[in-house]
From TrEMBL:
<keyword id="KW-0378">Hydrolase</keyword>
<feature type="signal peptide">
    <location>
        <begin position="1"/>
        <end position="19"/>
    </location>
</feature>
<dbReference type="GO" id="GO:0005975">
    <property type="term" value="P:carbohydrate metabolic process"/>
</dbReference>
<dbReference type="InterPro" id="IPR017853">
    <property type="entry name" value="GH"/>
</dbReference>
<dbReference type="InterPro" id="IPR013785">
    <property type="entry name" value="Aldolase_TIM"/>
</dbReference>
<dbReference type="GO" id="GO:0005509">
    <property type="term" value="F:calcium ion binding"/>
</dbReference>
<feature type="domain" description="Alpha galactosidase C-terminal">
    <location>
        <begin position="660"/>
        <end position="731"/>
    </location>
</feature>
<dbReference type="InterPro" id="IPR013780">
    <property type="entry name" value="Glyco_hydro_b"/>
</dbReference>
<keyword id="KW-0732">Signal</keyword>
<dbReference type="InterPro" id="IPR013783">
    <property type="entry name" value="Ig-like_fold"/>
</dbReference>
<keyword id="KW-0326">Glycosidase</keyword>
<dbReference type="InterPro" id="IPR008979">
    <property type="entry name" value="Galactose-bd-like_sf"/>
</dbReference>
<keyword id="KW-1015">Disulfide bond</keyword>
<dbReference type="GO" id="GO:0004557">
    <property type="term" value="F:alpha-galactosidase activity"/>
</dbReference>
<dbReference type="InterPro" id="IPR015919">
    <property type="entry name" value="Cadherin-like_sf"/>
</dbReference>
<dbReference type="Pfam" id="PF05345">
    <property type="entry name" value="He_PIG"/>
</dbReference>
<dbReference type="Pfam" id="PF17801">
    <property type="entry name" value="Melibiase_C"/>
</dbReference>
Length: 732
């Protein structure tokens, strides 16, 4: 295939590289607290060796909240200082701290995350220390001790980065690539990037090297060097547009070199590319084939359909008690009699019609297929508010609900500080009218979710439901809540120290019973990070889904470690009860007020959505819905990919090939076909073979993302797969 890439216009641009001591090994850890732990000569030789890339929960401290200490013996070379252009400050980066910290160097407290260590202050730290500070022992062994307090959930020091470096001229510079890509004809993409400096008065003057590489061949397709100057008040902008003939990611690299200091900063990103074809103008009904509701409870289902508007909806053989709004596709009412009701949906418009056979199952089971929706956490963290939630609902109805997306879930941060005198919970000032918000969401045909903890407080330090379970369930019922995420967090404070299986189940049984007293179908999502192999008992304990892991981050390391380690839990997935490897990290994420584009590449995002769909898990979009870019929207609106997740058989894919650099996951579908993901875990393109014996006898292999048939007949199937990417096929 021909590969052409032309850069149409360029204006300006950015970059950073400097010496640092990167240390993720050699750390020692102890749970507990003592002032003696900060001392230089304290003997930590018997302490546990720990990896600072993972929370302590993943390293033998399963249920632990409270204090923990990390210690590291490290030589800080004077050459670090000498080779730096600026010589005034040493910089220590921790990513992330969960929840708060104090940093000691050779016995002296040199920095802390907040005035009260017991107040949650999750996030990365960038600490600066004057180079003439006597606490630093240059060219000698230093002892770094970090005291951490975890309020609940995952705890400790973890993430991608721990480093000691010199604060240098480029530490004030960032290459801002946050602007959305602009799409042109023939898969062309372009954008403006910016070289920005903040916090100093330096006049940056140098060059920006821009390069486009084809990762498949390694060939440099375009190269250009531009002069670049910028200051704190005047950033440098560089704009390009590149036409890529092939549908794949190209690598873009930006390197700024400052001529006076000789220092550099660089950034690499890959171009997004669209795979999902645009929907047809003709009506098509998406979403699952089955929907479960309990007898006598309020029923709400929006028929998800794409096609040119206006659409009109029809439902034949709706059970007694339900009625359809023919203009919106919203079915409401309540069915008193148990039973499986086959229904035929038809949707019409000016260009044609679409039909679907559907079964409404009135019985004890709800959530027959995994939830599809949005959750506020990965985008906004504790800064969620009513406006953001309403924006999510509005965007969902405008752009996503026609593909089956329907839950709008508020995570932590909505709760008031103190219960009402009656003991009732209510929302804080960020949600002035919770019932009004829920009514609004329902009026669109969508569902509303909320969050709490069985402990006295949530992981974010807000009020939990401890000893108020019935009361809270009643409040949720009054508001009209359809989904509850119930997060263990501070429940460790009230449960036995080393909880048995019975102790682990207890808070979930209690809340399930409370929810069952309410006249609503409320989905229950367990969040206790996979403790006690929850997948083995989540269903019998009343969970519609259960988290199998700690919190996800928007990095390849986090997403792939979680996603490719779900095989043990896979066999427990069944209609009404699903594994939950945590929410999606696509689009603009941030866990707080400031957001950034996900750090996953386009191919990593295709892997993320494919793997999660194959595993039949809840898909909860974790981005700012008010800022959905074209790529993210395309990624989330592939009806054939979503149909894999929503398959009525409810089976999760199994890992059938686990190679060093690739994996194959196979999911059995209700119609007898198989959905198969060929995943490339390496950094290079590779050809992956799906053996004929794994595929079974088949007539066609369909490329699911592109929605087109690839080959007929049996035998081995080979696909060239991008680094960290996937070929997702349906074998029929
Ligand atoms: C964590 C949970 C996250 C989020 C957060 C809220 O424990 O895993 O998904 O809900 O608490 O504080």
């Amino acid at each position: 295939m021909k590969k052409i890439l032309t850069v149409l216009f360029l204006l300006a641009c950015f970059a950073k590289a400097h010496a640092q001591v990167s240390l993720s090994t050699g750390w020692k850890f102890k749970a507990g607290d003592s002032t003696a732990f900060s001392a230089t000569n304290f003997d930590d030789s018997q302490w546990q060796a720990i990896d600072v890339n993972k929370p302590w929960e993943r390293q033998r401290h399963d249920y632990y909240n409270g204090f923990g200490w990390y210690r590291l013996h490290v030589t800080i070379p004077a050459s670090l200082k000498n080779s730096s252009y600026l010589k005034d400050s040493l910089r220590i980066d921790l990513q992330n701290v969960d929840d708060n910290d104090e940093l000691y160097l050779n016995g002296k407290l040199i920095a802390k995350g907040g005035s009260d260590i017991k107040v949650s202050n999750y996030g990365p730290r960038h600490y600066m220390l004057a180079t003439n500070n006597p606490a630093i022992l240059w060219d000698k062994e230093n002892v770094l001790a970090i005291r951490i307090f975890d309020t609940g959930g995952d705890g400790g020091l973890y993430g991608d980065k721990f480093s000691i470096s010199m604060n240098d001229i480029m530490d004030y510079v960032s290459i801002n690539t946050d602007a959305d890509f602009v799409y042109g004809a023939k898969n062309a993409v372009g954008k403006s990037i910016k070289l920005i400096s903040k916090g100093n008065n330096y006049n940056y003057k140098g060059k920006l090297d821009f390069k486009v590489t084809d990762p498949e061949t390694g060939k440099v397709l375009y190269e250009k060097t531009n002069k670049a100057t910028f200051t704190g008040s005047k950033p440098f902008t560089y704009t390009f547009s590149a036409a890529a003939i092939e549908r794949k990611s190209y690598q873009l690299s930006y390197v700024f070199t400052d001529s006076l200091s000789g220092t550099k900063i660089s950034k690499v990103e890959s171009t997004p590319y669209i795979l999902t074809p645009a929907p047809s103008a003709k009506p098509k009904i998406n979403g699952p084939e089955v929907y479960g509701a309990r007898p006598g409870n309020p029923f709400l289902y929006l028929i998800p359909a794409t096609g040119q508007k206006p659409l009109t909806y029809k439902a034949v053989s709706l059970p007694k008690g339900l009625s359809l709004d023919v203009a919106t596709g919203i079915i409401k009412g309540s069915v008193s009699k148990k039973g499986d009701y086959p229904v035929t949906f038809t949707v019409k418009n000016a260009v044609g019609s679409g039909t679907k056979q559907f079964t409404i199952c009135i019985g004890d089971k709800i959530g027959l297929t995994p939830a599809l929706g949005w959750n506020s956490w990965n985008a906004f963290g504790l800064s969620v508010d009513d406006g953001r939630v309403r924006t999510a609902a509005r965007t969902m109805i405008e752009k996503l609900a026609s593909y089956g997306w329907n839950y709008v879930n508020i995570d932590d941060g909505w709760e008031i500080d103190k219960r009402l005198p009656s003991g009732e919970i209510t929302a804080n000032q960020k949600f002035p009218d919770m019932k009004g918000t829920v009514d609004y969401v329902h009026s669109l045909g969508l569902k509303m979710g909320i969050y709490s903890s069985p402990g006295p407080t949530t992981c974010g330090g807000y009020l939990g439901s401890w000893q108020h379970e019935d009361q809270d369930a009643k409040t949720y019922g009054y508001w009209g809540i359809d989904y509850l995420k119930y997060d263990w967090c501070s429940y460790s404070e009230v449960s036995p120290k080393d909880p048995t299986l019975t102790d682990l189940k207890k808070p979930y049984q209690v809340i399930r019973a409370s929810l069952d007293k309410v006249n609503r179908d409320i989905m229950l999502s367990f969040c206790q990070y996979g403790w006690g192999k929850v997948w083995e008992w989540g269903a019998e304990t009343g969970g519609n889904s259960w988290r199998t892991t700690g919190d996800i981050q928007d990095t390849w390391r986090s997403m792939s470690e979680i996603g490719f380690n779900q095989d043990e839990a896979a066999k427990f997935a069944q209609p009404g009860h699903f594994n939950d490897p945590d929410m999606l990290v696509v689009g603009k994420v941030g866990w707080g007020p400031s957001l950034h584009n996900t750090h996953l590449s386009a191919d990593e995002q295709y892997t993320h959505i494919s793997l999660w769909s194959l595993q039949s898990v809840p898909l909860l979009i974790g981005c700012d819905m008010g800022a959905l870019d074209k790529f993210t929207l395309n990624l989330l609106t592939n009806s054939e990919v979503l149909a894999i997740d929503q398959d009525a058989l409810g089976k999760a894919a199994r890992q059938v090939v686990k190679g060093n650099t690739y994996q194959i996951w196979v999911k059995e579908m209700k119609d007898g076909s198989k959905a198969i993901g060929l995943f490339n875990l390496s950094d290079k393109y590779q050809t992956i073979t799906l053996p004929g014996t794994t595929a079974g006898t088949y007539k066609t292999i369909r490329n699911v993302w592109e929605q087109k048939d690839l080959t007929k007949g049996a035998g081995d199937f080979k696909a060239s797969v991008a680094p960290h990417g996937v070929m997702l096929v349906r074998v029929k």
